[in-house]
Amino acid sequence: MCAEVVVLRLGHRKGRDPRITTHLGLVARAFGAQRLVLAGDEDEELFAGLHSVSESFGGSLQTEYTEKPMAWLKNFVKTGKAVHLTMYGLPFREVIPELHNNVPLCIVVGGAKVPRQVYDICHHNVAVGNQPHSEVAALALFLDSYVESPPVFDDAKLTIEPNQRGKTVHESGD
């Protein structure tokens, strides 16, 4: 993955969606996205939680809020490509080879109701399956197929050692 990857989360509802949106941010960060753009309710607590994870486990996920997601998306597609994750789209594995890693990519993840404009503005409407499913699962599957390999965060204060059973966490300097 050469160019910037941005996740645009539409329709975030502060009282109802913080866990799902946080998990979208965690997946985005873990698979190397550089930015999470939030539309819907502004949520600084959510951003603080994501920054805290980056502080402990390394990497950086820039966060920003937009009041006007359609204007933001229209501006983005002037220089980049946009992919909308929807169960009504084309199979994602067929579309990924058409994406060029040398242009910025915005992955649009909907909320309760996605405006019709999103389907028209995005270059591709893709599905990880044509059944109702989690937007977190959709983002993870898409990014797992799109990225060559997940990033390694050299600035991590905490690292996890893979184990068959048990938990081993190393602090930097161990």
Explain what you see:
The protein is α/β, with parallel strands linked by helices and 174 residues long. The strands form 2 sheets. The chain has a 6-stranded parallel β-sheet with strand order 3-2-1-5-4-6, sandwiched between helices. The protein is globular, with a radius of gyration of 16 Å. The mean pLDDT is 94.
Helices and strands, with pairings:
Blueprint: E1 5-12, H1 18-30, E2 35-40, H2 44-57, E3 62-66, H3 69-76, E4 81-91, H4 92-95, E5 105-109, H5 116-121, E6 124-127, H6 135-146, E7 158-161, E8 168-171
Parallel strand pairs: 1-2, 1-5, 2-3, 4-5, 4-6
Antiparallel strand pairs: 7-8
Helix pairs in contact: 1-2, 1-6
Briefly, what is this?
The chain has 174 residues and is of the alpha/beta class.
Number of domains: 1
* Mean pLDDT over the residues: 94
Count of strand segments: 8
Q: Please name the CATH topology.
A: Alpha/beta knot
Features:
8 strands; six-stranded parallel sheet; Alpha/beta knot; globular; 174 residues; alpha/beta; two-stranded antiparallel ribbon
